[in-house]
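Complex record, two chains
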Amino acid sequence: MWDPPLVSDFDAELYLRLIGEQMLLDRGDQERGSRRPPIAEAAGALVAVGVITAPRAEAVLDDYSLAAALRNDPHFRRRTMMGARPAQSEGKPLPPRRIVPCERTVEQPNATVHVRWVSLSEDGASVAVRWRPDPAQPWSSAGPPQAMLTDDRGTTETAFFVGGGSSEGMLGSLKTMRPLATDTAWVELDGTRLELTGEATPFETAVERLPEQPPAHRYLWQRIAEPHEFSRHSVEPAIDALVAAGVLSADDPLLGDLREVLEAMPPRGPGPTSGAARRIDRMPEPWRSLVGRQGRHDGPTGSIALGAVTPPFDGFSVAVVALTSERDAFQAEVEVAPGVSHRMPFEWNLQTRQLAWWARDDRGNHYLGHTSNWDSSGDFGHGLIAFRPALDPRATKLAIMPTAETMRAVVSFDLRWTHERTGASG
Amino acid sequence: MNDWWSGLPPAQAGVTCGGHTHRLRWDEGELHALDHDDLEAERALAALGGERCTCVDVLDAWARHDDDPRVLVLASRGPSDPLAAQADWTAQLGGQTAAMPTGVPRSRIAPRALLRLPARRRAIAARAGPGFGSVSNRPVGSGGLSLRTQAESDLVALLGLGGGVQDRLVATVAAAWAKRFEQPDSALALARPALHASMHGRLGAAVRSWLGRSDLEVELELVSSRHQPTLTDRDGAVRAELPFTWLSDVWSRGLSIVWGRFCLAATTEDGRAWKLMTVGPDLGPPAPMRIELPETG
């Protein structure tokens, strides 16, 4: 049981420490399952609105994280074994890239490789593939897929597979560590030539400043749009802290809207509704249209190669490489600099900065993404963003909108789908 | 005026040192390594790459943290809040301790003098800079360990000592800061939230256990030691107005609850006869009590 502490003449550090004390006294509250500790939620909110500095809040979290670990020997041993998370660096803007759609199927001795597109930039080359092992051969004996890529200048680089899947097939990219010529006319994949004659879908990129709003409002909306979790229990300590700090009124209408949205959202992000009461018409946009289309399975199928790189916004740079749509969701393959890492639910530390992944179509619908198959280091992150609900089949245009604290990038394009061909060629 | 350790009995812990179990004994405010005659020689040997002496490592760690507020944050809040202390918490101390402070003559110092820890603490703190010497992130030496990493290792080791020695460390830190509350300075301002909260936690554990209500809301206002301490009911919550000295005078001595009454203050003239100001479970007006410790030694 956790209740917000009372601190007169608000002292943010004391407030956080009193939460820590309450957690130590309520020992059971330390076993929080998938929820973040309330002290970490409160700290994140207070730092965001500027009533305590991040280093000061981190010091408090560090104290109580160790205090909790000292009361639970297995946790203590895990804590001492875990290294520090790599710090989020400034990161350098992502370079532009040339994306060429390339629908080809290449038969290899132990697998069938379906090529989807080729990406070329000064950082390296990659070939997006669907890799299906030969059913007659145990796929695990072949090891992770890899290939040799060669350009028209004669440069050859080894490409390693990045992606995920099962024994029946894997979806991802074969990536080189060094670049090939970005203007090459062709690329050979293990000797099979792929002519780069296709054209990527045209796109537009822009950066928009978010509408002004009180820092507490901005923080809470951004918090529940984060791509890792949806949990009313997680956000309540943040609300309590903001109210205690005097930067949010306990009867602020925002709180009603926020709780309404949270009630309508299942724990793992927007998906099928659970039948809970929801007064959709009263919800603010973009949530109204998002919640309104939950549970639909009528999305178009196909993929779109883009290669869009946004201008810097709030210190971030994002590349939207491609989009794939299925019946109940659509996915964007993206890269981000600096890296945004998964936020672990049980973590005590202040989170690194996060992006919210919004999308909007020309029918007025909004979509929210969560990370999938994500990999991040301090200065670079990449993976898939899975958007829900399903894309409206009537939509003809889409904008992907990675959103930071004060700005968002907008990558707009027409929805002209490429459909994967079956059967070998080449 | 009595010494702050009046009424605190000696405590002793065993540590594995050089393959043997050695004794560390706390008595009258100081920690002693009973099985070493020449601690300076042990330090010199370790500095030259010889085997580390766990007893020396613990004494040095104690010196670095005998006024560290983090001790109060990490240590037990009372019998209802045990730590999962393991013997190997102390064993991990070796190899992560700070270098010896400079300016201390290494030879011709009687081992007993080396146990006068405050001087060493001040020397180490002076090297570490202002604030709490133990919570800086400044790198230490060529090993690349940060002070925070070292501090964490120190604290874990000290709190894992057992035999009640770790409780004496808490008492030592509480007494150090109780004195500073009387003459507030910038260090107190920095440490105050940690001190306040860690006393709040101990008060809460004591009161909840006393009244048998694990969900009881307990409020604490830190007041001057010249202020009359109180414990009252406020809208179903228990509200305490106590000076920080309550932690060293009462809680550290195990006097929080005596004969079913909550102790607000404890004073003594001779270290044996104690006058307590107490409140009953009805949170009525305070009433005095007298207790007397048995003769020792």
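Note: The first strand of chain B starts at residue 11 and ends at 17.
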